[in-house]
Amino acid sequence: MGSVVKKRRKKMRKHKHKKLMKKTRHQRKKRGK
Predict the structure, then answer these.
(1) Which of 4, 13, 14, 28 has a C-alpha 20 to 30 A away from that of 21?
(2) CA distances (Å), origin 33, targets 23, 25, 26, 27, 30
(3) What pLDDT digit, counting tens, does each position of 16-32 carry?
(4) What is the 3-state secondary structure (H, E, C) of 5-26?
(5) 3-18 confidence digits (pLDDT tens)
(6) Is residue 29 helix, strand or coil?
(7) Full-model pTM
(8) Neighbours of 7 (CB within 10 A)
(9) CA dist 19 → 2, 3, 25 (Å)
(10) What is the dihedral angle through the alpha carbons of 11, 25, 23, 21, rounded to the nearest 10 degrees?
C-alpha cells in the first residue's frame, strides 16, 4: 500500500500544486483571512 501512495504522490505532485494554488485562493476569499 505504501509504495502505491508514493507512486501516486510523485505523479500528482505537479498537478496537485496547480490545483492547490487555485484552492488556497478560493479559501482565502471565503474565509477572508
Answers:
(1) 4
(2) 14, 10, 11, 9, 8
(3) 677 777 777 776 676 65
(4) HHHHHHHHHHHHHHHHHHHHHH
(5) 887 777 777 677 667 7
(6) helix
(7) 0.27
(8) 10
(9) 23, 23, 10
(10) 0
Query: CA torsion angle for 9, 13, 19, 22 (degrees, to 10)?
Result: 130
Cell of 10: 510523485
Alpha-carbon gap, residue 19 to 22, rounded angstroms: 5
CA distances from 10 to 26, 30, 32 (A): 25, 30, 32
